[in-house]
Specification:
With 154 residues, the protein is mostly helical. It is built from 4 helices and no strands.
């Protein structure tokens, strides 16, 4: 897009990962940095002693606010917030089960394209398989037979 930036100095210019001599990133670089928000990398955390002390203090304040326990954190939430947390955790488990069943990478998949019903079905099937495996292992143990090693899916 011509005229997008005043000069080449405002562009990120990171190389394409797949083709080192190929196109460069055209995004605007961050102020005071040489890369854009996509290529700048994550924060490495506080580096100075003052910054580390401030981070530790904030963490202690946050933890103390909840009474220092999981129950304290749970008690600090409203019922609606807790239901949202439970639904998010259930959805995460369902996504992992669906990804395992369909051999997908759960971190790099567009979950908006999968109906929630399919996710819950995959979670149910995953739980059912685990239940069957546990009952089979109990029966083998009762009979004094060796329990087979878990199969690792690739």
């Amino acid at each position: 897009m011509p005229g997008r930036f005043k000069s080449e100095q405002e562009k990120c210019l990171a190389f394409c990962r797949k083709r080192p001599n190929g196109p460069r990133c055209q995004a605007k670089k961050l102020p005071g940095r040489s890369r854009c928000r996509y290529h700048a990398g994550l924060s490495t955390g506080p580096r100075t002693e003052e910054g580390k002390a401030k981070t530790a203090l904030n963490l202690r304040k946050c933890y103390a606010k909840w009474g220092g326990t999981w129950e304290g954190w749970r008690a600090s939430l409203t019922d609606e917030q807790w239901e949202a947390v439970k639904k998010a955790r259930l959805l995460g488990r369902a996504q992992r089960a669906y990804a395992k069943e369909h051999h997908l990478d759960p971190k790099h998949f567009d979950w908006t394209r999968v109906p929630e019903r399919d996710l819950m079905e995959a979670l149910h099937l995953n739980r059912r398989r685990a239940e069957i495996e546990r009952s089979r292992n109990r029966l083998l143990k009762k009979m004094g037979l060796p329990i087979p090693a878990k199969r690792v899916s690739t």
